[in-house]
Design goal:
There is one protein chain. By secondary structure, the protein is of the alpha/beta class. It is 41% helix and 16% strand. It contains 10 helices and 8 strands. It has an 8-stranded parallel beta barrel, surrounded by 6 helices. Helix 2 (22-32) packs parallel to helix 10 (195-207) and helix 3 (46-60) crosses helix 4 (73-79). The longest helix is centred in the N-terminal third of the chain and has 15 residues, at 46-60. The radius of gyration is 16 Å and the shape is globular.
Protein backbone atom coordinates (compact mmCIF):
# COMPACT_ATOMS: atom_id res chain seq x y z
CA UNK A 1 0.00 0.00 0.00
CA UNK A 2 2.72 2.49 0.97
CA UNK A 3 4.67 1.77 -2.21
CA UNK A 4 1.59 2.82 -4.17
CA UNK A 5 1.15 5.96 -2.07
CA UNK A 6 4.68 7.17 -2.77
CA UNK A 7 4.41 6.70 -6.56
CA UNK A 8 3.57 10.35 -7.22
CA UNK A 9 4.56 12.49 -4.28
CA UNK A 10 3.85 16.22 -4.30
CA UNK A 11 6.01 18.51 -2.18
CA UNK A 12 4.33 21.87 -1.73
CA UNK A 13 5.97 25.22 -2.31
CA UNK A 14 3.70 28.22 -2.14
CA UNK A 15 6.00 30.38 -4.27
CA UNK A 16 5.97 27.72 -7.01
CA UNK A 17 2.16 27.98 -7.15
CA UNK A 18 2.59 31.32 -8.98
CA UNK A 19 0.11 33.26 -6.88
CA UNK A 20 -2.60 30.61 -6.99
CA UNK A 21 -4.23 29.21 -3.87
CA UNK A 22 -2.08 26.35 -2.54
CA UNK A 23 -5.13 24.31 -1.48
CA UNK A 24 -6.60 24.56 -4.98
CA UNK A 25 -3.28 23.49 -6.53
CA UNK A 26 -2.98 20.51 -4.20
CA UNK A 27 -6.56 19.35 -4.71
CA UNK A 28 -6.25 19.61 -8.50
CA UNK A 29 -3.03 17.61 -8.33
CA UNK A 30 -4.64 14.93 -6.16
CA UNK A 31 -7.56 14.68 -8.57
CA UNK A 32 -4.97 14.17 -11.30
CA UNK A 33 -3.24 11.32 -9.50
CA UNK A 34 -0.93 12.62 -6.75
CA UNK A 35 -0.88 9.91 -4.08
CA UNK A 36 1.02 11.60 -1.23
CA UNK A 37 1.50 15.25 -0.22
CA UNK A 38 4.30 16.78 1.82
CA UNK A 39 3.59 20.16 3.35
CA UNK A 40 6.85 22.09 3.21
CA UNK A 41 6.81 25.49 4.86
CA UNK A 42 10.03 27.36 5.55
CA UNK A 43 8.57 30.76 6.40
CA UNK A 44 5.34 30.19 8.37
CA UNK A 45 5.36 30.53 12.13
CA UNK A 46 4.36 27.49 14.17
CA UNK A 47 0.71 28.38 14.70
CA UNK A 48 0.12 29.21 11.03
CA UNK A 49 1.92 26.03 9.97
CA UNK A 50 -0.28 23.91 12.26
CA UNK A 51 -3.45 25.60 11.00
CA UNK A 52 -2.41 25.01 7.40
CA UNK A 53 -1.55 21.38 8.16
CA UNK A 54 -4.94 20.73 9.79
CA UNK A 55 -6.74 22.26 6.83
CA UNK A 56 -4.60 20.31 4.35
CA UNK A 57 -5.22 17.03 6.17
CA UNK A 58 -8.98 17.66 6.03
CA UNK A 59 -8.74 18.38 2.29
CA UNK A 60 -6.77 15.18 1.60
CA UNK A 61 -8.77 12.83 3.84
CA UNK A 62 -11.65 12.16 1.38
CA UNK A 63 -9.08 11.14 -1.25
CA UNK A 64 -7.20 8.83 1.17
CA UNK A 65 -3.99 10.71 0.40
CA UNK A 66 -1.52 10.86 3.33
CA UNK A 67 -0.20 14.20 4.57
CA UNK A 68 3.49 14.35 5.45
CA UNK A 69 5.03 17.29 7.31
CA UNK A 70 8.51 18.42 6.32
CA UNK A 71 11.02 18.72 9.20
CA UNK A 72 8.62 19.88 11.91
CA UNK A 73 7.76 16.94 14.15
CA UNK A 74 5.85 19.25 16.51
CA UNK A 75 3.59 20.36 13.66
CA UNK A 76 3.08 16.76 12.54
CA UNK A 77 1.98 15.78 16.06
CA UNK A 78 -0.23 18.84 16.58
CA UNK A 79 -2.05 18.33 13.27
CA UNK A 80 -2.16 14.50 13.53
CA UNK A 81 -0.51 14.31 10.11
CA UNK A 82 0.14 10.87 8.64
CA UNK A 83 3.88 11.20 8.89
CA UNK A 84 7.01 13.30 8.83
CA UNK A 85 9.92 13.78 6.46
CA UNK A 86 13.30 14.72 7.91
CA UNK A 87 16.80 15.41 6.68
CA UNK A 88 19.99 13.99 8.12
CA UNK A 89 20.60 17.13 10.18
CA UNK A 90 17.12 17.16 11.70
CA UNK A 91 15.87 15.20 14.71
CA UNK A 92 17.80 11.92 15.25
CA UNK A 93 15.96 8.78 14.13
CA UNK A 94 15.99 7.19 17.61
CA UNK A 95 14.24 10.21 19.09
CA UNK A 96 11.83 10.41 16.18
CA UNK A 97 10.71 6.80 16.71
CA UNK A 98 10.22 7.49 20.41
CA UNK A 99 8.10 10.61 19.87
CA UNK A 100 5.92 9.57 16.92
CA UNK A 101 2.87 7.36 17.54
CA UNK A 102 3.03 3.86 16.03
CA UNK A 103 2.07 3.56 12.39
CA UNK A 104 3.21 7.02 11.29
CA UNK A 105 5.10 7.36 8.02
CA UNK A 106 8.77 8.27 8.37
CA UNK A 107 10.72 9.50 5.36
CA UNK A 108 14.39 10.43 5.39
CA UNK A 109 16.51 12.30 2.87
CA UNK A 110 19.74 10.66 1.72
CA UNK A 111 22.22 13.07 0.17
CA UNK A 112 25.35 10.92 0.27
CA UNK A 113 26.39 7.28 0.49
CA UNK A 114 26.98 7.47 4.26
CA UNK A 115 23.33 8.47 4.71
CA UNK A 116 22.17 5.37 2.84
CA UNK A 117 24.43 3.07 4.84
CA UNK A 118 23.33 4.54 8.17
CA UNK A 119 19.66 4.27 7.23
CA UNK A 120 19.96 0.49 6.77
CA UNK A 121 19.70 0.17 10.56
CA UNK A 122 16.40 2.03 10.70
CA UNK A 123 12.76 1.23 10.06
CA UNK A 124 11.86 3.83 7.46
CA UNK A 125 8.77 4.09 5.29
CA UNK A 126 10.91 5.37 2.43
CA UNK A 127 14.30 6.86 1.65
CA UNK A 128 14.41 10.03 -0.45
CA UNK A 129 17.33 10.10 -2.88
CA UNK A 130 18.00 13.83 -2.89
CA UNK A 131 18.63 15.51 -5.23
CA UNK A 132 18.55 13.13 -8.18
CA UNK A 133 19.16 15.90 -10.70
CA UNK A 134 20.20 19.54 -10.29
CA UNK A 135 17.27 21.80 -9.43
CA UNK A 136 16.79 25.45 -8.46
CA UNK A 137 14.59 24.49 -5.47
CA UNK A 138 17.37 22.48 -3.77
CA UNK A 139 20.43 24.70 -4.16
CA UNK A 140 21.69 24.12 -0.61
CA UNK A 141 22.02 20.36 -1.01
CA UNK A 142 24.79 17.96 -1.97
CA UNK A 143 25.72 17.32 -5.57
CA UNK A 144 23.09 15.38 -7.54
CA UNK A 145 23.12 11.59 -7.35
CA UNK A 146 22.41 11.11 -11.06
CA UNK A 147 21.35 7.78 -12.52
CA UNK A 148 24.56 6.00 -11.54
CA UNK A 149 24.08 7.16 -7.98
CA UNK A 150 20.48 5.94 -7.98
CA UNK A 151 21.65 2.54 -9.19
CA UNK A 152 24.12 2.40 -6.30
CA UNK A 153 21.42 3.32 -3.75
CA UNK A 154 19.08 0.68 -5.18
CA UNK A 155 21.78 -1.95 -4.75
CA UNK A 156 22.63 -0.85 -1.21
CA UNK A 157 19.30 0.01 0.38
CA UNK A 158 16.44 -2.12 1.63
CA UNK A 159 14.01 0.81 1.62
CA UNK A 160 11.51 1.98 -1.01
CA UNK A 161 13.16 4.86 -2.87
CA UNK A 162 11.60 8.22 -3.67
CA UNK A 163 13.64 10.40 -6.01
CA UNK A 164 13.42 14.18 -5.75
CA UNK A 165 15.18 17.03 -7.50
CA UNK A 166 14.69 18.02 -11.11
CA UNK A 167 12.04 15.38 -11.87
CA UNK A 168 9.70 16.17 -14.74
CA UNK A 169 7.93 14.57 -17.68
CA UNK A 170 11.19 14.17 -19.62
CA UNK A 171 13.07 12.07 -17.05
CA UNK A 172 10.42 10.33 -14.93
CA UNK A 173 10.54 7.12 -16.96
CA UNK A 174 14.33 6.99 -16.72
CA UNK A 175 14.14 7.39 -12.94
CA UNK A 176 11.49 4.69 -12.57
CA UNK A 177 13.43 2.26 -14.77
CA UNK A 178 16.56 3.15 -12.80
CA UNK A 179 15.19 1.83 -9.52
CA UNK A 180 12.89 4.49 -8.05
CA UNK A 181 9.70 3.35 -6.33
CA UNK A 182 8.21 6.80 -6.80
CA UNK A 183 8.99 10.38 -7.77
CA UNK A 184 8.60 13.55 -5.74
CA UNK A 185 8.01 16.82 -7.57
CA UNK A 186 7.49 20.48 -6.72
CA UNK A 187 7.46 22.85 -9.69
CA UNK A 188 6.51 20.21 -12.29
CA UNK A 189 3.04 20.25 -10.74
CA UNK A 190 2.84 23.40 -8.58
CA UNK A 191 3.94 25.66 -11.44
CA UNK A 192 2.08 23.84 -14.22
CA UNK A 193 -0.70 25.69 -16.02
CA UNK A 194 -2.96 22.80 -15.04
CA UNK A 195 -1.78 20.94 -11.91
CA UNK A 196 -4.46 18.33 -12.69
CA UNK A 197 -3.16 17.61 -16.19
CA UNK A 198 0.47 17.70 -15.07
CA UNK A 199 -0.22 15.16 -12.34
CA UNK A 200 -2.28 12.98 -14.65
CA UNK A 201 0.50 12.88 -17.24
CA UNK A 202 3.22 12.09 -14.70
CA UNK A 203 1.00 9.37 -13.24
CA UNK A 204 0.61 7.83 -16.70
CA UNK A 205 4.40 7.71 -17.13
CA UNK A 206 4.83 6.03 -13.76
CA UNK A 207 2.28 3.40 -14.76
CA UNK A 208 4.15 2.48 -17.99
Amino acid sequence: MLNEQIKLYLVTDESACLGRDIFWVVEEAVKGGVSMVQLREKSLDTRAFIERAIRMKALLAPYNVPLIINDRVDVALASDADGVHVGQSDMPYSLLKKILPPGKIIGLSAEKKEDVTEAENWELSYLAVSPLFATPSKTDHSKPWGMEGLKWVKENSKHPLVVIGGLNASNTLEAMHGGATGIAVISSICSAESPFEAARYLKSLIRI
